[in-house]
């Protein structure tokens, strides 16, 4: 029998935590064969912490403002992740760029969701940038994190129309609905060891027989 390691995710969030909730719910339904070891936020008193509490998941705030530089902040996050035996990291609405130090520490084991069709509109203001540019289609992207900004290999994407009367809020809501579908799907494939990465290309492998037991 090949050894199967069950992933323990550390989830990084900055705010409301609806993407986190989509992962919590999918684990609850048995759609993701993994657990969440800890939820970490960079801001205090955010909804993501409440959601983790409600689900009985270990959670902690590591306030960015308490650290003089990014590496010390990330060292503190890594200490929490290691304390909770995390094997891989999910960024679910985490509004900070991870440094090469953190990315190397979890090389190939960090997944992010971005609210646009990468490589278009990376960064922290995707919906604003989409509307300013005038594109007719936007969407969301689940990808592995590399050292760049939203530049790692793409796992899954879903497109939505951009409507003439869209505001940032209406577009964000349309995109978010799709995020909550593709994010748990991509995380499930990762947890099952079904993502093969060759350079920029991510291939979905056939289901492992363990899933049919
Ligand atoms: C989501 O739309 C996510 O894609 C985006 O923040 C939102 C978080 O919502 N992430 C980024 O923009 C990362 N650059 P949530 O707090 O309700 O999960």
Comma- or semicolon-separated keywords:
about 210 residues; alpha/beta; seven-stranded mixed β-sheet; two-stranded antiparallel ribbon; globular; binds glycinamide ribonucleotide
Walk me through the structure.
- This protein has 213 residues and is α/β, with parallel strands linked by helices.
- The protein has six helices and nine strands, in the order E-H-E-H-E-H-E-H-E-H-E-E-H-E-E.
- The protein has helices at residues 18-29, 47-54, 70-83, 100-105, 126-133, 168-191; strands at residues 8-13, 35-41, 59-61, 88-91, 110-114, 137-144, 154-161, 195-198, 201-204.
- The protein has a seven-stranded mixed β-sheet, with helices on both faces. A two-stranded antiparallel sheet has the order 8-9.
- Strand 4, helix 4 and strand 5 (110-114) form a beta-alpha-beta unit.
- Helix 1 runs parallel beside helix 6 (168-191).
- The longest helix is centred in the C-terminal third of the chain and has 24 residues, at 168-191.
- The chain is globular and about 50 Å long.
- The mean pLDDT is 95.
- Glycinamide ribonucleotide (GAR) is lined by residues 15-20, 92-93, 95, 113-115, 124, 126, 176, 179.
- Glycinamide ribonucleotide binds at residues 15-20, 92-93, 95, 113-115, 124, 126, 176, 179.
């Amino acid at each position: 029998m090949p050894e199967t390691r069950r992933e323990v995710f550390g989830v990084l969030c900055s705010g409301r935590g609806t993407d986190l909730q989509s992962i919590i719910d999918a684990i609850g339904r048995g759609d993701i064969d993994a657990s969440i070891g800890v939820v970490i936020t960079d801001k205090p008193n955010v909804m993501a912490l409440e959601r983790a509490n409600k689900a009985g998941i270990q959670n902690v705030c590591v306030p960015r403002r308490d650290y003089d530089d990014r590496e010390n902040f990330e060292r503190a996050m890594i200490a929490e992740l290691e304390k909770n035996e995390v094997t891989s990291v999910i960024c679910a609405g985490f509004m900070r760029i991870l440094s090469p130090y953190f990315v190397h520490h979890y090389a190939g084991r960090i997944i992010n969701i971005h609210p646009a069709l990468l490589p278009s509109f990376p960064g922290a203001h995707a919906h604003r940038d989409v509307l300013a540019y005038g594109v007719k289609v936007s969407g969301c992207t689940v990808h592995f994190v590399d050292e760049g900004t939203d530049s790692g290999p793409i796992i899954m994407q879903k497109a939505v129309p951009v409507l003439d009367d869209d505001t940032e809020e209406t577009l964000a809501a349309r995109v978010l609905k799709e995020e909550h579908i593709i994010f748990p799907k991509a995380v499930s494939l990762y947890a099952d060891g079904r993502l093969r990465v060759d350079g920029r290309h991510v291939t979905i492998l056939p289901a492992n027989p363990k899933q049919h037991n």
